[in-house]
Automatic annotation (TrEMBL):
Involved in the maturation of specific proteins in the endoplasmic reticulum. This is Lipase maturation factor. Residues 185-328 form the Lipase maturation factor 1/2 C-terminal domain. It comes from the Eukaryota. Signal peptide: none annotated. It comes from Mandrillus leucophaeus (Drill). The keyword Transmembrane applies. GO terms for cellular component: endoplasmic reticulum membrane. The gene is LMF1. The keyword Cell membrane does not apply. GO terms for biological process: protein maturation. The chain crosses the membrane at residues 79-97, 149-170. InterPro entries: LMF, LMF1/2_C, LMF1/2_N. Belongs to the lipase maturation factor family. It is a multi-pass membrane protein.
Length: 350
């Protein structure tokens, strides 16, 4: 959490001038329905969100060292913070996993109210065992000594592996989301060090027209399971599940297809109506029909519609505007040398 806070302060200026949340809900990888309404929150609420984020990520982690009560407060704030993030967007299982270490902040006394305390209950039996043992400490057994040695050894190993992570945190050129050893046990993390200020999407389209340049060619959209496509489709709610292809399409949208050759691999599979590739999509416009002759990628700019506005009244969650071509119309035959150069098997049409 501390690393995530540092990468924000050192990264995008909008984290310092408190404007990042003006864009985040709209431009995050996979928004959900709540993201739509949070995006349209008042400006002062967005400023409060950023100040709260800085407090929880940069200051609250040190509560761990300030005694029992401060540690409990730390655990409660971190879990609440992650719960808010889960509600506000589809960030897969990340926030759920981040909650797990915070559970260690709650000792038996804190969680005791969860267990019944009547006669014969689990709590009653534990107290009885403690009274029977009294103040005497059992003699250490061989197994406990081995376990203690293993714990100490693991602690030393983790401390040693943490050295480059701590040095990275202290560095003014902090690296985000990387590992420093082949074991991948102790890594560095930081989310949203920079915020994209506008949302762009790659829309894959196919046509059965023999001539891709013909004015009367009808291009039909492929719909993904969760990422924005049809402006009228409600944003999905999938956390903690993760649609990796939808996530990768978000990254591809603010790069070029030359940086993401896998998207042409996908286009080739769509040209062949590959069943496994189509299973990753929500809608195939060529279902029960021959595969398309051409597939292209179109680049669009997306913005949330304004509640109460004309587009929202028409049932649209998004307003989109074409930017231009992402990649030109391609046929399976044109992709043959591209696939061969990369050692990919050419998909065969059904």
């Amino acid at each position: 959490m501390f690393g995530a806070g540092l990468i924000k302060i050192r990264g995008d200026r909008c984290w310092r001038d408190l404007t990042c949340m003006d864009f985040h809900y709209e431009t995050q990888p996979v928004p959900n329905p709540v993201s739509y309404y949070l995006h349209h929150s008042p400006w002062w609420f967005h400023r409060f969100e950023i100040l709260s984020t800085h407090f929880i990520e940069l200051l609250v982690p040190f509560f761990l060292f300030l005694g029992r009560r401060a540690c409990i407060i730390h655990g409660a704030l971190q879990i609440l913070f992650q719960a808010i993030l889960i509600v506000s967007g589809n960030l897969s299982f990340l926030n759920w996993l981040t909650m797990v270490p915070s559970l260690a902040c709650f000792d038996d006394a804190t969680l005791g109210f969860l267990f019944p305390s009547g006669p014969g209950s689990l709590k009653d039996r534990v107290l009885q065992m403690q009274r029977e043992i009294g103040g005497a400490r059992p003699k250490p057994r061989f197994g406990s000594v081995v376990r203690r040695a293993a714990n100490v050894s693991l602690g030393i190993l983790l401390a040693w592996l943490s050295v480059p992570v701590v040095l990275n945190l202290l560095s003014p050129i902090q690296v985000m989301n990387t590992h420093f050893n082949s074991l991948h046990i102790v890594n560095t993390y930081g989310a949203f060090g920079s915020i994209t200020k506008e949302r762009t999407e790659v829309i894959l389209q196919g046509t059965a027209s023999p001539n891709a340049s013909a004015p009367d060619a009808v291009w039909e959209d492929y719909e993904f399971k969760c990422k924005p496509g049809d402006p009228s489709r409600r944003p999905c709610l999938i956390s903690p599940y993760h649609y990796r292809l939808d996530w990768l399409m978000w990254f591809a949208s603010f790069q070029t297809y030359e940086h993401n050759d896998w998207i042409l691999h996908l286009a080739g599979k769509l040209l062949a109506s590959d069943a496994e590739a189509l299973s990753l999509l929500a809608h195939n416009p060529f279902a029960s029909r021959p595969p398309p002759r051409w597939v292209r990628g179109e680049h669009y700019r997306y913005k949330f519609s304004r509640p109460g506005g004309r587009h929202a009244a028409e049932g649209k969650w998004w307003v989109r505007k074409r930017i231009g071509a992402y990649f030109p119309p391609l046929s399976l035959e044109e992709l043959r040398p591209y696939f061969r150069d990369r050692g990919w098997p050419l998909p065969q049409p059904l």
